[in-house]
């Protein structure tokens, strides 16, 4: 009898489907994404909590970035295309680490080169520093010339995945393919 019971348990375990696994690093436990309330690049009032019901993929970057930011935005645009009719599952949020140069108009123009659905936000130096602190982002200015506005910004280069309930769930490092983004968006959207 014990053998029959054990065999039945093993058979059930073998046929049960495992929950899909994220390709990103997972926040364990998940935690509430810190609220963000600023003006968006299009001039509208923006609140992160207004995006509940969608998977939000957050990139911290800046418009003068030479390599990492545009490569990441290109991968996000490709992921958006690969989602096809399910593209509404994902909202990309680009948060400036360079509020002195990244005006709302500049952000809007820059992001439109990748996908017009991407939302860009910026604010005062103090507001953006507080958001970076909330999300554990580092950003350091590196002078490049004589002008005060000639510099690059070294910054953390991860994508943050926020689930439909507003919880920080995963962190994807720079350089991962669009297919990994699509996979994680679909896993989180299906929950």
Question: How would you describe what is shown here?
Answer:
The chain has 191 residues and is α+β, with helices and mostly antiparallel strands. The protein has one domain (21-190): Glutaredoxin. Helix content is 33%, strand content 28%. It contains five helices and ten strands. It has helices at residues 2-15, 68-83, 104-112, 125-135, 178-190, and strands at 25-32, 37-39, 45-47, 55-61, 90-96, 119-121, 139-143, 151-155, 158-162, 167-173. Mean pLDDT is 88; it is low at 4-16. Keywords: Copper, Disulfide bond, Metal-binding, Signal. This is Protein SCO1/2.
- Share of residues in strands: 25-35%
| Count of distinct strands | 10
What's the CATH topology name?
A: Glutaredoxin
Q: End-to-end span in angstroms?
A: 38 Å
Largest sheet: 6 strands, mixed
CATH superfamily: Glutaredoxin
Entry summary:
This is Protein SCO1/2. The chain has 191 residues and is α+β, with helices and mostly antiparallel strands. Helix content is 33%, strand content 28%.
Secondary-structure blueprint of this entry?
Blueprint: H1 2-15, E1 25-32, E2 37-39, E3 45-47, E4 55-61, H2 68-83, E5 90-96, H3 104-112, E6 119-121, H4 125-135, E7 139-143, E8 151-155, E9 158-162, E10 167-173, H5 178-190
Parallel strand pairs: 4-5, 5-6
Antiparallel strand pairs: 1-10, 2-3, 4-9, 7-8, 9-10
Helix pairs in contact: 2-5
Binding site for Cu cation: 65, 69, 155
Organism: Massilia yuzhufengensis
Protein name: Protein SCO1/2
């Amino acid at each position: 009898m014990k053998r029959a019971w054990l065999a039945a348990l093993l058979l059930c375990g073998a046929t049960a489907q495992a929950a899909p696994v994220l390709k990103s690093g997972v926040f364990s436990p998940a935690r509430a994404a810190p609220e963000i309330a600023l003006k968006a690049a299009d001039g509208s009032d923006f609140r992160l909590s207004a995006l509940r019901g969608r998977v939000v993929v957050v990139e911290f970057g800046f418009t003068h970035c030479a390599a990492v930011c545009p490569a990441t935005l290109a991968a996000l645009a490709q992921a958006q295309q690969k989602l096809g009719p399910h593209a509404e599952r994902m909202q990309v949020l680009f948060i400036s680490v360079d509020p002195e140069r990244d005006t709302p108009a500049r952000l809007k123009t820059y992001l439109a080169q990748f996908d017009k659905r991407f939302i860009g936000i910026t604010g005062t130096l103090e507001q953006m520093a507080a958001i970076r602190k909330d999300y554990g982002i580092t950003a350091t200015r590196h002078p490049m010339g004589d002008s005060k506005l000639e510099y690059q910004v070294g910054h953390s280069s991860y994508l943050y995945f926020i689930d439909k309930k507003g919880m920080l769930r995963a962190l994807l490092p720079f350089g991962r393919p669009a297919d990994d983004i699509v996979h994680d968006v679909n896993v989180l959207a299906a929950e």
